[in-house]
């Protein structure tokens, strides 16, 4: 495997990518093009959780996928959106322009987002697939599109009382544009298939978020697989010792940890892997 860091820039905002590229296997006797997953970690738009970066990337590597971690714009003196949306569009474009020697299957680009990163991925699955919105937010200049999305305990609707961000000031720090407040409303007939999971007992991002998203996917007739686990806190990542915070057993959940295997099955079922 070849692991490298890259710096890209959009609208005078520099952002970092971390690439985890699979090597070719000589025993195959021929070159293999691998799908690639772009991972957007969580962190409440104030930091990027490393628990949802390399551990997730390496697990997707083990499935036979390249992985790229994208550290998108966080809250600062300017709102997160639309810059974060543009950064994701540029990352997809950047992958499209990688040389053939990288052996990327560019028809199978998957977006995976967790928590706040899930909001970005969900927003892109709407605005990024709508020609009018692509033009409005200046992402129509970029090439490439995802083939599917994976959402883990994602922020979907930021207007739900009691759920993240549950603070009008923070809401406007994320976006002054109401278009980005309810990503379920951005879904359209061009949106991509989705694998979505969350826990019923998530007390930071209420489970109604994912229910709203999957309900809209269903109404539009879009392929979706949804798993609501009966227990578990927000931000479990794998729910195993790999991503457990030291001394905090609440980050262990053997049942919820099955989500990654379910996602693998879904990718194969959708012919996005294998």
UniProtKB/TrEMBL annotation:
One of its GO terms (molecular function) is hydrolase activity. Pfam families: BD-FAE. Keywords: Hydrolase. SUPFAM superfamilies: alpha/beta-Hydrolases. Residues 31-205 form the BD-FAE-like domain. InterPro entries: AB_hydrolase_fold, BD-FAE-like_dom, GDXG_lipolytic_enzyme. This is Lipase esterase (Putative). The lineage of its organism: Bacteria, Bacillati, Bacillota, Bacilli, Lactobacillales.
